[in-house]
Amino acid sequence: METDALIIGAGPAGLFQAFQLGLQGIASHLVDALPHVGGQCAQLYGHKPIYDIPGIPVCTGAELVQLLERQIAPMQVPRHLSQQVESLQQRDDGRWLAQTTAGTLFAARSVFMAAGVGAFVPKALKVPGVDGLLPEQLHYHPLQLDMASGRTVLVYGGDEEAVNAAIACASSCADPQSSGGAGAAKTYLMHRRDAFQAEPQQLARLRQLRDSGAIEVVIGQITEVRHAAGRLGAVQWMDGEGREHLLCIDMLLVFLGISPRLGPISDWGLSIERKQLVVDPATQATSAAGIYAVGDIVTYPGKKKLILCAFHEATMAAFAAAEYLQGEKPLLQYTTTSAKLHAILGVAHPGAQ
Q: What pTM was estimated for this model as a whole?
């Protein structure tokens, strides 16, 4: 598919980049390795407070992502999630041809790298049989759990995300008045040891659901996945004594952590210092024409790894890209008074009759 701009990374920097490009009349697409937008902010700080976003005294990472999504809603930016850009080559006409791990092809007039410290890739479960599962039966770090409704679910992991997922899956069954749970028919939580990393109130809720039987905690590790024609039937697991057991389930939610990887970016011929892209801070341009970079992935003298700095960089990159794509320096307009920007944002212009 053809686009004016391809944004690699859908964290706060990438989302705000889409907004700033939209104000310049530049259509964009977002690509991210995670199954949801928000990047590191949603994945690592989803429930933690952030205090240094201008005009917002405090918000969680998840709340910030929601606000950014509301902000870019008028631009109708397509998202391409759960896939990484694995190759990027310049064509003879100057456009950049990008291909993702899902086989999606883009011909982009400009590219914006907003990949943070790299693509956040969930750590995969590596046991026999896992590769044969149908996609809807195996989920890595899902944020929404509606698909677990009525299923026999195994949540595999011991961190805060895993605990929260198990609680969400089990809560509505334990409490029919609850509206927050996904309503799994049966919820198992498996970890290699009987200790979980979560906030005290979440651990207290886990104990409550565990005592009531709504969550069954299994201490061990998965050693094999059993399925027939891709249909998950059970997992084989090993306890601390080395004994093997079988657990019948029909959905597997895996929370083994995520790791940032610079990945194929390092092979694209861009100037890199210490795993960061070198840019001109006045334009956020990289060493390749038509490619810009913002956020934690960039380096320049005085660079600060802060969200608010990434927002500034996205603005500078959008103005530079507008000049590059449109052949002239864009006029500085203000959202308070510009009829053109009001039309883009879908808001009424004060002077309109």
A: 0.71
